Amino acid sequence: MEDLGSSVLAALAAAGEPVDAGAVATWLGLAHADSVRPGLNRPTGCDLAHDGHGGVLRALAALLHRRLAAAVLGAHSTIADHYLALWGGLGNGLPALAAHPRLGDADGGYGFRHLVHHLLAAGRAEEVHRLLACEQPAGQGRPGVVNVWFDARHRAGQVDGYLRDLEAAAGAARRATDAAADSTAPSLGLEMRYTLMRVCAEQADRPRRGVALMLLEAGLWDRVRALNDVRRLPSGERGRALLDMLPHLPEEQRPRVLHEVVVDTMTAVQGDPSVDTDLLAEVAALLSPQGMRRAVAAVSGLESPQSRIVALAALAPHLTAEAMCDALAVARTFQDEFYRAWALQELAPFLTAGPASEALRDVRAMPSSSYRDAALIALIPRQPEDLRGSALAEVREFSPEALGWCWIEAIMLLPEHRRRTTLARVVERAAPDRHVELLVEAAGVLPPGERDAVLAEALAVSHTITDRDVRERSLVSVAALLPAGARDQVVTGLLTSARTLVDEDDRARLLIDAAELAPPKERVAPLTEAVALARKTENATLLIRAAALLPADHPARNAALGQALEIRLQDVSYENYFAYGVLDELCPLLTDELMAVLVHAIQALERPGYLGRFLSARAEHLAGVALEAGLDAARSFSDPTRRALALTALSDRLPVRRQYEVLEEALTAARSARRCLGNIALRLPPERRRALLVEELSYWHDGFQDTWRQDHPDESARLVPFGFSLVPVGETRGMGEAVHAVLIRAQRAWRRGEGRAAVLPLIRTALDRYRSVDAPDSPVLTAAARDLGGPDAEREYRLAIRDIDRWWNHPATLGHAAE
């Protein structure tokens, strides 16, 4: 390179993305970014700041034929060398990057994204293979050693980029294999290596809900790694996990993370609307004014009108004045008047006078009377008092038919005298049962002075209903709102009426309805009658209702619950998982003895999955003998994972000393299962928690164990030719039917003497199809590496197996490493 301009242009041409002058100056070893611009202007006559990256590249094209082809190649090497030196040198295994992962953030993370590209473009493929094989101790108290490049990119949330690097390296290995003229192609072993690494990296990148925060709090992960791991959780889980991370993040990072939570809440629920309104309301209370406006902007991007409206409703109580203006603008974007009116109704309670007046003008312009009136009613309370009357006069009709669910709200806006006449007009055309229903609905919100008269009318109309069932239901609804003396009279009449009913279920149901309205001391007799009737008809629903109202020590209660349990267990027996909900009303009422019966009955079904779900989800209802039965049932699981989960859940119900004893049992089971230690760690003192999390980390990737060598310890020493070597089949070997079939075809082609050129594409097809969590260390691939690539290819493949164990497996598997 004879001048600075050519060096600058070469660096820009080699860059994997548009970069600024500062990055170029760093690569070229210049002190300041200003040093770059004069050198650039001299040979090209263009200016980086004004012409941009595209202009520079066009200038480069004019010079390329004269002098820059070799310079670009050199620039690739210069850029690669800069990052390799920054990270401690390839020969040393990038120790600086391993010790200080933040070095990967240099130049905005450019080195991570493009180092492999620069090395390959510079013709340094061997260094790419070395880069991808660098290893160092894990650090931060984590067990074992790590692949430095994967670990750094995993921390940065760039595993997709790491997989692209593997693909680029595999491509270089494929080209080297294809270029091999004789039977020796060591690069075939590299192709197999990158398949193993791809499978392992894809599995290791799976986020685990709740674990990232524990690892961060234990000091095993830093904030960057934990946050990026949480960001990979699926929608619906990610938002809550990000919110839990918030206290651990610096102030400057929180607004961005809060917005990520906002965005996740808007796609968290399947169906329409898709918004997790509870979480959105929770995060809205934490947003800054600017963050609130960004949240409203995110709402405007939702495709579904329903989703936009429920999201606005969740945000509305927290909207600042500016954000409320933005929200009103979103509401105005609805073309359909139904949605526009609905959105304004949701925002109306939180509008101040100015925006409320603007919204009122929008509503008045709506041609549809029903939608217009509903929105008017929501907006009237937000108007100045002197304007409310005129707005109220615009409501065309105060009736449930015209206004739907907001008709009561409209009635309450009227003056008292007009409210009485309007209510009378609404009910005069209704059938008696509907007449009572409307009056009861109104009485629930009327002031005490007006309520008594309305309830008296409702009671009188109820007595005129000819249908007995309808009349009794109406009387029950009215009695619930009456003052004590009047209510007692109605209850007495209902009890008398109930005892004349012929149908036993109807009689029991009305006895329970009436008893529920009676004073506690007067409930026992009718409820005892109801239990006797429900036991006779075997109606579990009525038995549970009556038992819930009886005193805890009453004999009829236990009898009712015992029979209800027998009936419900029949449903559980028939439907198993889908009948899980049949116990929802029953479990909170059962005595310890009956809960123990329930535990034994479910255990007798011999359905361990259902039993495990029951013990974990119903642990809060287990105490005394029922808890002991639950612990015995948990210990009966042959599956250590189920045993660990059930014992852990049940331990929460025990005194501290015994809780730790049961947690030790759960820990033994978890270690046998090589999982679930995190749940146990949460319940143990901090000094033990960190050690258990370290142990849990070492279990994460056990799926990559070399099970073939464990099951066939002498098989790998046998030199069976590729064409006749065993092709393992099954999920445990990571060889689905597609992979198995392709390898069989490759063997047949090899036996027919078709040669390496014909067989290699089949081997590569099989490698591309591997998706298992188990390393594909099978005799057929070992033989393929040896027979198609030579001894060096086989050695490379065996070394890859060793490296997989070291980087992604439990340290105990190191004893299986290849020689």
- Order of strands, main sheet, comes to 1-2
Count of β-strands:
2
Low-confidence stretches: 701-717, 730-735, 810-819
Give the overall pLDDT as a whole number. Answer: 86
How much helicity do the residues have? 55-70%
Structural class call reads mainly alpha
**Proportion in β-strands:** under 5%
Spatial gap, N to C terminus? 47 Å
Instruction: Give a quick account of the main beta sheet: strands, pairing sense, barrel closure.
Output: 2 strands, antiparallel
Provide a count of the helices. 45
Radius of gyration computed on alpha carbons: 37 Å
Shape: globular
How would you describe this protein?
Strand 1 (135-137) and strand 2 form a beta hairpin. The protein has a two-stranded antiparallel sheet. Helix 13 (238-245) runs antiparallel to helix 14, helix 15 (277-284) runs parallel beside helix 17 and helix 16 (289-300) runs antiparallel to helix 17 (305-315). It is globular, with a radius of gyration of 37 Å. The model is unreliable at 701-717, 730-735 and 810-819 (pLDDT under 50). 42% of the residues are buried. By secondary structure, it is mainly alpha-helical. The chain has 45 helices and 2 strands. 67% of the residues lie in helices and 1% in strands.
